[in-house]
Task: inverse folding
């Protein structure tokens, strides 16, 4: 049983509505409904009664909620204890959304400290909502997240959750595709519009339905990449790059990461006609005590993302 699903169950019980709980937890209403139905199947009982006013707990649901609260409290305490013990020995505990630029910074800090006698480092790549949850619970000390500029409400949400948001940079979206793609041959590397991509398959990561990058505002209105006619789901970056290099599929991200073209023969070119940018930032628990490696990691992120933004601004001008 996924403990994250227990948190969603507790949220529905708290708000008395799947719709309100979904909004508070930054997940879609259909996805949250699916999670609750899955929990009910796993437990073999009905947890909520659906009414015209929302949802209310059944007797079974009330009993499960009392146990659920204890389980979640114990998990949070255990994760905080584990995090603090690791920090005493020196650590770099990071949760991040799947962008190679962040992973390269993590790898660089590990390289710098490779001769230290003892440390415990951990990198978890996850969907944005999971990154938020992992930092809040203490599973990771540092989170690196991205969002669209349209989601200005998220910073208020972070503050309510006791999280500090440190802005890194803002980028125009890019299309990532094979260097031999027919659209490259047709338009060159100046840029591609969304309408030029409608006949090609979209490559995305499994499970990241609420990734903010999949909901983009364009000059012709909002685009939900989840509704693309052809979608290929992959688990990790290596699978994604291998698929892009051998097909006419595409994905959406930001500027190229180091070695992308030379290693994979995959390039990133501007996505034209977008009316918003992708914002990147660091998430910390307010008052968090960071190790030296984690402090160095955040500083390296600042430097690298600032340089990326400078290069992006230069390419546009």
Result:
């Amino acid at each position: 049983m996924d403990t994250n699903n227990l948190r969603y169950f507790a949220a529905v019980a708290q708000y008395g509505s799947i719709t309100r709980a979904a909004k508070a937890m930054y997940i879609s209403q259909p996805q949250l409904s699916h999670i609750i139905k899955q929990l009910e199947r796993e437990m073999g009982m009905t947890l909520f009664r659906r009414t015209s006013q929302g949802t209310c707990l059944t007797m079974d649901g009330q009993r499960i909620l009392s146990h659920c609260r204890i389980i979640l409290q114990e998990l949070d305490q255990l994760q905080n204890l584990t995090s603090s013990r690791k920090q005493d020995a020196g650590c770099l505990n990071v949760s991040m959304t799947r962008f190679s630029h962040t992973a390269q910074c993590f790898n660089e800090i590990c390289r710098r400290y490779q001769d230290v006698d003892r440390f415990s480092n951990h990198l978890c790549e996850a969907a944005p909502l999971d990154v938020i949850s992992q930092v809040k619970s203490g599973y990771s000390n540092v989170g690196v997240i991205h969002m669209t500029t349209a989601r200005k409400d998220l910073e208020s949400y972070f503050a309510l959750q006791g999280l500090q948001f440190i802005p890194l940079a803002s980028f125009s979206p890019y299309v990532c595709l094979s260097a031999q793609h027919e659209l490259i041959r047709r338009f060159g590397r100046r840029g591609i519009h969304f309408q030029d991509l409608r006949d090609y398959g979209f490559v995305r990561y499994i499970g990241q339905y609420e990734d903010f990058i999949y909901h983009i505002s364009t000059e012709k209105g909002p685009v939900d990449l989840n509704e693309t006619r052809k979608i290929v789901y992959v688990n990790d970056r290596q699978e994604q790059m291998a698929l892009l290099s051998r097909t006419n599929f595409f994905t959406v991200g930001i500027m190229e990461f180091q070695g992308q073209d030379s290693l994979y023969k995959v390039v990133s070119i501007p996505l034209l006609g977008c009316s918003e940018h992708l914002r990147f930032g660091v998430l910390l628990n307010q008052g968090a005590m960071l190790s030296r490696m984690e402090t160095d990691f955040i500083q390296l992120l600042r430097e690298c993302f600032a340089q990326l933004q400078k290069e992006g601004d230069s390419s546009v001008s």
User: Anything to note?
Assistant: The radius of gyration is 21 Å. The longest helix spans residues 59-88. The first strand starts at residue 48 and ends at 51.
